């Protein structure tokens, strides 16, 4: 994620960073991997073990680029307007395609997918709404939410029952991770809304106080 310049220089000493940089390339790669992931997931209607493993591998690589591009952008001063827009779009495209795909395959209930994606899209729009007033840094809860969401999706993508057996244990592990992800999604979403409203109110108050 390279949309939030938390710490480190936001621009290199020579001026604005170039549009074509490693952080943006990684963000673009994540977008490119989304249709590859979806195609792999739906081979044989999701019943082919080898292709499910491939889908998991593609998802894991794409998810890793989300962490990597942000770290590179901040440390090297490569934060750009393109990254600020493309990064959350790539994140939601990856998470959304995974959740929708798993719901289509009847592995995750549709209502859970709708709740999670409704929150993610809503927060992304809210982020753009308050962007001119300031940046809301990622909270620990938000980072935990992203990690647990990724973990839960990974558990559902992996054909664990086919590989290891123990359907009951697998179901318990999957549902536990998904329940925690859902709870964190809702709680952190409400927290973000409150912080966004406070930021906008503070910005409006400062504007009115300006002589």
TrEMBL record:
Chief location of this protein within or outside the cell: membrane
Subcellular location: Membrane
Residue ranges of coiled coil: none
One GO term (biological process): glycerophospholipid biosynthetic process
Top-rank lineage group of the source organism: Bacteria
Documented EC number(s): 2.7.8.5
Keywords, in A-Z order: Lipid biosynthesis, Lipid metabolism, Membrane, Phospholipid biosynthesis, Phospholipid metabolism, Transferase, Transmembrane, Transmembrane helix
UniProt cross-references to InterPro entries, sorted A to Z: CDP-alcohol_PTase-I, CDP-OH_P_trans, CDP-OH_PTrfase_TM_dom, CDP_ALCOHOL_P_TRANSF_CS, Phosphatidylglycerol_P_synth
A Pfam short name: CDP-OH_P_transf
Transmembrane intervals: 20-42, 49-65, 108-130, 151-169, 175-194
GO molecular function: CDP-diacylglycerol-glycerol-3-phosphate 3-phosphatidyltransferase activity
Bilayer topology annotation: Multi-pass membrane protein
GO CC term (a single one): membrane
UniProt keyword Transmembrane, yes or no: yes
Nuclease among keywords: no
Family the entry assigns: Belongs to the CDP-alcohol phosphatidyltransferase class-I family.
Alphabetical list of PANTHER family matching this protein: CDP-DIACYLGLYCEROL--GLYCEROL-3-PHOSPHATE 3-PHOSPHATIDYLTRANSFERASE-RELATED, PHOSPHATIDYLGLYCEROPHOSPHATE SYNTHASE-RELATED
Listed name of the protein: CDP-diacylglycerol--glycerol-3-phosphate 3-phosphatidyltransferase
């Amino acid at each position: 994620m390279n949309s939030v310049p938390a710490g480190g220089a936001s621009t290199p000493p020579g001026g604005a960073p170039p549009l074509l940089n490693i952080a943006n390339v990684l963000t673009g790669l994540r977008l490119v991997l989304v249709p590859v992931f979806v195609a792999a997931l739906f081979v044989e209607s999701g019943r082919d073990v080898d292709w499910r493993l491939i889908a998991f591998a593609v998802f894991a690589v794409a998810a890793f680029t989300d962490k990597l591009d942000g770290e590179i952008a901040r440390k090297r001063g490569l934060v750009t307007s393109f990254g600020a827009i493309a990064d959350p779009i790539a994140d939601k495209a990856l998470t959304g395609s995974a959740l929708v795909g798993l719901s289509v395959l009847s592995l995750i209930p549709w209502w859970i997918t709708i709740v999670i994606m409704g929150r993610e899209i809503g927060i992304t729009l809210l982020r753009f709404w308050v962007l001119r007033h300031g940046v809301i840094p990622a909270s620990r809860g938000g980072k935990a939410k992203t990690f647990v969401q990724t973990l839960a999706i990974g558990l559902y993508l992996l054909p664990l029952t086919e590989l290891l057996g123990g359907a009951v244990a697998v179901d318990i592990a999957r549902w536990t991770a998904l329940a925690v992800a859902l709870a964190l999604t809702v709680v952190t979403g409400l927290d973000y809304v409150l912080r966004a409203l406070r930021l906008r109110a503070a910005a409006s108050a400062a504007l009115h106080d300006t002589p």
